[in-house]
Write a structure and sequence with these properties.
Layout (H helix, E strand, L loop, with lengths): L1 E4 L3 H5 L2 H13 L3 E3 L9 H5 L7 H11 L6 E4 L2 H18 L2 H11 L2 E3 H8 L12 E4 L3 H6 L5 H7 L5 E3 L14 H4 L1 H18 L3 E4 L2 H13 L5 E4 H6 L14
Parallel strand pairs: 1-2, 1-3, 3-4, 5-6, 5-7, 7-8
Length: 255
């Protein structure tokens, strides 16, 4: 398949390794990965904050970059951005767009996937040749869990990883407290939610807490680093791209 890779804002600016790992993994599975160079923000932040007209240029650009019929699927290492493209873009286009935008959005929506659902639902694979000899717990992010309903797909992929010690996260479906601008506008509530999440992560004694969204990992990782937890955060794509011949080496955490 010819796959269009969407980097996401956080991936582009703060977590490029998650994007690179997605490309490496998909290429290893035999697919042609392309990166439309003019891609920008998907506009999720604007819509979530209540500004639905403002992201029209972003939605139009996204459709223009990825509606190319030579691109069989659009894949991104983010449940929240995939949810935005599949659900919010249609709302924006219907309310403030024209016929061309609505057509482009519909085309892209039909072939857009978060990484784990693309692997499991489209490619039909759970064993991707990954090797990761560490203790890992998984946090299901809100958009992937509630908007995309990826369910057990990330866990199916993690269970198939060679040498992994996968431990269940208590109260896994509780929000970490990030929520984009929610964490800024409601800092005290966000911090309290984060503390609850860090408490449950601590009970797992995991080396790594993984998830499918860099935004949540940024929030959780920041909290864990401040309390000098022994647990690191790492995107799901980075675990799945790690192999015996090219392993991800986890540096010693500060405790």
């Amino acid at each position: 398949m010819r796959i269009g890779l969407f980097a996401t804002c956080l991936g582009d600016t703060l977590f490029p390794e998650a994007v690179k790992s997605t490309a490496v993994l998909l290429a290893r599975l035999g697919h042609d990965v392309v990166f439309p160079p003019e891609q920008t923000c998907c506009g999720q932040m604007h819509v979530n904050t209540g500004y639905q007209r403002e992201p029209v240029p972003l939605v139009r650009n996204f459709a223009g970059q990825f509606a190319d019929p030579s691109i069989d699927a659009v894949v991104m290492p983010s449940g929240s951005c995939a949810g935005s493209v599949r659900h919010q873009h249609e709302i924006v286009a219907e309310r403030y767009g024209d016929a061309a935008l609505r057509a482009g959005v519909a085309t892209v929506k039909a072939k857009t996937y978060e990484l784990s659902e693309f692997l499991v639902d489209v490619l039909g694979v759970t064993e991707v040749g990954a090797y990761f000899p560490y203790r890992v717990t998984y946090h299901p992010t809100c958009h992937s869990l509630r908007m995309l309903r990826v369910g057990e797909k990330p866990l199916k992929l993690l269970r198939a990883v060679d040498s992994i010690d996968l431990v269940e996260l208590p109260e896994a479906d509780s929000c970490c407290g990030f929520g984009g601008t929610f964490a800024v506008k409601n800092a005290e509530t966000s911090t309290a939610m984060l503390q609850d999440k860090m408490r449950t992560i601590a009970t797992t004694e995991a080396d790594v807490c993984t998830a499918g969204d860099s935004s949540c990992l940024m929030h959780i990782g920041g909290g864990l680093s401040r309390i000098k937890s022994g647990t690191r955060t790492l995107h799901l794509a980075q675990i799945l791209s790690s192999t015996r011949t090219s392993p991800y080496v986890l540096t010693e955490a500060v405790r």
